[in-house]
């Protein structure tokens, strides 16, 4: 497949030290404050990284704050709740995967090949983003707000719908007498 899955959330700066870089604004303790919006991205990156750890249990806001060397209150300046942090990860997943699915639809005229590549891109995304995979399969959402799992279920419903549409188109091209039924069974 020619398109590759995106890396985890884009880095806010060129190195881990950039987590405290704001172009020169420093706090009284000598630590630099990030530019507006950068801290939000850093929080999501740290959360995704923590979810990548094998055997990682539930990620707490205390552990997340400690990893970022900020207070829990600082997390809540950027997100109203932990659920909103997970929503940020889910938004990234949706934008990345559906962006690739749309590109695939534009570039691949053969519906059966498009179906194969759709499944491949989903698997590659999961392989390159193990923390996001835990969110996608619901492992990281077990003790969180139920609406997060519902949103991931909707994500997979959309993926299944795209796959079903591709398979139906392939069945029509192949001359199937019941393309909708065939696509439903194949999906």
Automatic annotation (TrEMBL):
InterPro entries cross-referenced by the UniProt entry: Homeodomain-like_sf (IPR009057), HTH-type_TetR-like_transc_reg (IPR050109), HTH_TetR (IPR001647), SlmA-like_C (IPR054580)
Record keywords: Coiled coil, DNA-binding
Record domain HTH tetR-type: where: 37-97
Gene3D superfamilies named among the record's database cross-references: Tetracycline Repressor, domain 2
Annotated region of DNA binding: 60-79
Domain of life: Bacteria
GO terms, molecular function: DNA-binding transcription factor activity; transcription cis-regulatory region binding
Disordered as annotated region, ranges: 1-38
Regions of compositional bias (Basic and acidic residues) in chain numbering: 18-38
Pfam family, one: SlmA-like_C
PANTHER family, per database record: HTH-TYPE TRANSCRIPTIONAL REGULATOR RUTR (PTHR30055), NUCLEOID OCCLUSION FACTOR SLMA (PTHR30055:SF183)
Name under which the protein is recorded: Division inhibitor protein
Organism: Hydrogenophaga taeniospiralis CCUG 15921
Organism ancestry: Bacteria, Pseudomonadati, Pseudomonadota, Betaproteobacteria, Burkholderiales
